[in-house]
């Protein structure tokens, strides 16, 4: 099987991308370092990060994009090979180089979140150790299918908005959850104004 197809199939099966709305950039190198980045592409030239007209239809791709950023950071980025260390009786792992400093991590998170949401997330979920960003070595996630969410606008002004998303569970599970999403317009584009660890 072609490596790009295999990687794309893996990303789809893990729920990192939804069919038809995602792109995986892979290098031609062999091994686990072949995966360079996962980006969800949707409306707008640069994808959901450039949404300036927020509607019940455009908020879902933005939330899916924000979740991809959260998953990438919460797993340590492209962390192969993983470097770990012990701190206060807990095992930590360093983040990959592309998000390995506080500035790089903040810039990456702010592609979908406000500065305040990103700063809270970095302050509460990461540790700067020997000049590098790290996190507790644990896996996170949930079984909600944000790609299939439906949105209801609760309020909207020129610079703030609130939505209630009805998000179904992954296949095999019944029901859905209601997820409250608060947004703010930053430099002309909408950003999630809730820390990723709280939202997801």
CATH structural architecture? Roll
Distance between the termini: 33 Å
Taking strands numbered 1, 2, ... along the chain, how are they ordered across the largest sheet? 3-4-6-5
The gyration radius over C-alpha positions equals 17 Å
**Overall pLDDT confidence:** 79
Q: Beta fraction of the residues?
A: 25-35%
Overall 3D shape: globular
Poorly predicted regions:
1-46
Largest sheet: 4 strands, antiparallel
User: Portion of residues in helices?
Assistant: 25-40%
Total number of domains: 1
The run of helices and strands is HEEHEEHHEEEEEEH
Descriptors:
200 residues, 10 strands, 26% helix, 4-stranded antiparallel β-sheet, globular, disordered N terminus, Nuclear Transport Factor 2, Chain: A, alpha+beta, single chain
What do you see in this structure?
InterPro entries: Endopep_inhib, TA_system-associated_sf. Keywords: Signal. Residues 1-25 form the signal peptide. This is IseA DL-endopeptidase inhibitor. It comes from Paenibacillus odorifer. The protein is α+β, with helices and mostly antiparallel strands and 200 residues long. It has a single domain, classed as Nuclear Transport Factor 2, Chain: A, CATH 3.10.450.420. The chain has 5 helices and 10 strands. The strands form 3 sheets. The protein has a 4-stranded antiparallel sheet. Strand 5 (127-129) and strand 6 form a beta hairpin. Helix 3 crosses helix 4 (115-125). The longest helix has 16 residues, at 59-74. Mean pLDDT is 79; it is low at 1-46.
């Amino acid at each position: 099987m072609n490596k790009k197809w295999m990687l794309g199939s893996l990303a789809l099966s893990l729920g990192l991308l939804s069919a038809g709305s995602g792109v995986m950039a892979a290098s031609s190198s062999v091994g686990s370092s072949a995966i360079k980045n996962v980006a969800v592409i949707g409306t707008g030239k640069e994808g959901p990060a450039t949404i300036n007209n927020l509607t019940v239809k455009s908020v879902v791709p933005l939330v899916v994009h924000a979740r991809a950023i959260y998953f990438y950071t919460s797993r340590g980025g492209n962390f192969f090979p993983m470097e770990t260390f012990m701190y206060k009786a807990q095992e930590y792992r360093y983040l990959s180089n592309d998000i390995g400093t506080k500035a790089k991590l903040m810039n990456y998170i702010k592609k979908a979140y406000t500065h305040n949401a990103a700063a809270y997330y970095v302050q509460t979920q990461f540790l700067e150790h020997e000049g590098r960003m790290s996190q507790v070595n644990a896996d996170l996630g949930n079984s909600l299918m944000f790609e299939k969410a439906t949105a209801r606008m609760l309020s909207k002004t020129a610079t703030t908005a609130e939505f209630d998303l009805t998000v179904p569970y992954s296949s095999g599970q019944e029901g859905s959850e209601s997820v409250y999403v608060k947004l703010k317009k930053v430099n002309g584009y909408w950003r999630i104004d809730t820390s990723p660890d709280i939202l997801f």
